[in-house]
Amino acid sequence: MTASKADLTYGNWRRPASPGIAGLGQLGTMGVLATMIVMIIGFVFSPRLGFALGVSGGLLLAPLLVHDRYGRNAWQNGLARVAWRWSVTGGHTLYRAGPLTRVSFGGFALPGLAAPIEMIETRDALGSPFALLAHPGPGHVSVVLACAPEGTANVDPDQIDQWVAAWGGWLSGLGRDPDLVAASVTIETAPDVGHRLRREVETNLDPAAPALAARVLGEIVATYPEGSAAISCRIALTWARTARPGATKRRSVDEMCVEVGRRLPALVHGLATTGAGPARALGPAEIAAAVRVAFNPGVAAAVEEVGASAAGIGWADCGPVAAEESWSGYRHDDAWSQTWYMTEAPRSEVRGTSLHRLLAPHPDVARKRVTIGYRPYHPAAAVRMVDRDHKDALFNASGRRVGRARDAISITAAEQTAAEEAKGAGLVRFGIIVTATVVTAADLPLAVTAIDHLAAGSRIRLRPAEGQQATGFLAGLPLGIVLAAHVRVPTAIRDAL
C-alpha cells in the first residue's frame, strides 16, 4: 500500500510457485531425476532397455511442460476430462428430486457436495438464535452472517483505507483461531421487485402522517423498483471439529454449537469497523430461502413478498426439483448458470474500486454471485510459508540463464511479504468464484460475454469451471463449503505441480 492518501493502491499478493527446473515444479523435477536414475540403471543391463526407460519417462513428464492460457498443464486437463467422462457414464451429472425419486424421504434435498450438510438451530452466548451447518465429510461446521455494507460512494479515501485496514485485521484475527479453516464473502445482485421496500414503508407509515407525505411515499414504492437491483452480502465462517490442527478426534456437533456460539458475538462485533455495516447470524429459514432462490429464481418474488421467515421453506426442501450439469454449464429448475474460478489475481497494484464493476449489477446478467474465499494461515504456519516462498522465488530466479523482470518483482514481493508477516500481519490464501444465472438459455451467451468483460475490467483472470459446474455453483453459495477439503489429491502434491 502506498503512502499517498489521495490515490491509495493495494497489492503484493502473489501465487506461490513450486521450485523446479524448466518450469516443471518440484514434483516434475523429482520425476526428471528419478527418470535419469532409472535410465542409468537400465543402461547397465541393456542400452535398449535404458533408452526405452528414458523415452517412457520423458513421455510421462512432457505433459507437465504444456500449459494452457490459465496455467494448467496437460496432465491436469486430461485428468479432468477423464473424471468428467466417468461422471457422465455413472449418471452423476443428473439430479431428480421429489416423492417418486431415490432422494431420501421424498424431499427436495440439495445435490452434490451439499447433500450431506445438516442444519441445527442453536443460540450464541448472548441468547440470539442462529443456524449451524454441519459438514459430516470434512468434519466442518459453518455459520452464515448477513451484512449491509456501507459502500464507497461519497466516502473519503481515508475512511476507505481505515475500513481496509480493519478488514485485514479481522482476517488476521481469524488466522489466530486454530479451529477456523475458512471464510467467504458472497455478494449477490438480482432484480429488485420492490416487495421489501413496500413492506418496510407500510410497516412504519404513521396513520396520522400528512397526505402529501403518504402520497410521496406511495409514488416511491410504485416507481423505485423499476430497473433497480437488490444487493445482498453474506459472510460464511467455517470451523473444523477437531480440537487442533492435525488431531484426529472430532468434537460432537453439540459441542461445536456451544463453542461457536461462544465465539460468534465477538466475531460479529469485529465487523463493525470494517465497513460491513450491521451484521447478524442468519437463522435456518433465511438460509434455506436464500438457497432455494439461488436454484429457482422464479420463486424470488414470492419469497420476498412474504419474507424468508414466513416462506415456509425447510432445509430438506430448499434444493432443486431437477438439475443437469454439462461440461460448461448447469441447468437447475427454471434457470441456467455458468461458473468461473479465478486463476490469476491482478499482477500489479490496484485501487480500492478495482472490483466495483465485477460486483455491481449488470443488465445482461439476471443474477450474479461473486464469492471471495479466504483460508487464513495460523501464525506458526505463516512463518514457514513466507520463508519457503522467499527461498522458492530465489531458486526459480537463479535457475534461468537470463534474468526476467518478473523474477525480480517476485523476489521483491516475497521479501515484502516476509517483512510484513514479521511485523504481525496475517497471511491468507484467497480465491474468487463467479456465478452468472439467467432465466432463459438464449440469455446465457450474453451473460458469459458480460462476465468476461467485467473480469478484464477488474484485472483478474477467470476460467470456466469446465467439468465441475455443479460443484462450482454449490461452492459459490454461502454455505461454508471448502473445496480444498473435498479434493482427493493431497494439497502437498497439488502445490508441487
Main sheet properties: 13 strands, antiparallel
| Number of alpha- plus pi-helical segments | 15
Distance between the termini: 31 Å
Q: Which range does the strand content fall in?
A: 15-25%
Helix-and-strand structural type: alpha+beta
Mean pLDDT equals 84
Structural overview:
- The protein has 497 residues and is α+β, with helices and mostly antiparallel strands.
- The chain has 15 helices and 15 strands.
- The protein has helices at residues 25-45, 47-61, 74-89, 157-175, 195-204, 211-223, 253-270, 284-295, 300-306, 356-359, 379-398, 405-422, 444-457, 469-475, 491-496; strands at residues 9-10, 94-96, 118-123, 129-135, 140-147, 180-191, 229-240, 280-281, 322-325, 330-332, 335-344, 350-351, 367-376, 428-438, 461-464.
- The model has no long low-confidence stretch (mean pLDDT 84).
Question: In terms of topology, how is this protein built?
Answer:
Layout: E1 9-10, H1 25-45, H2 47-61, H3 74-89, E2 94-96, E3 118-123, E4 129-135, E5 140-147, H4 157-175, E6 180-191, H5 195-204, H6 211-223, E7 229-240, H7 253-270, E8 280-281, H8 284-295, H9 300-306, E9 322-325, E10 330-332, E11 335-344, E12 350-351, H10 356-359, E13 367-376, H11 379-398, H12 405-422, E14 428-438, H13 444-457, E15 461-464, H14 469-475, H15 491-496
Antiparallel strand pairs: 1-12, 2-9, 3-4, 4-5, 5-7, 5-8, 6-7, 6-13, 9-10, 10-11, 11-14, 11-15, 13-14
Output the keywords.
single chain; 497 residues; alpha+beta; 13-stranded antiparallel β-sheet; two-stranded antiparallel ribbon; 15 helices; 15 strands; 19% strand; globular
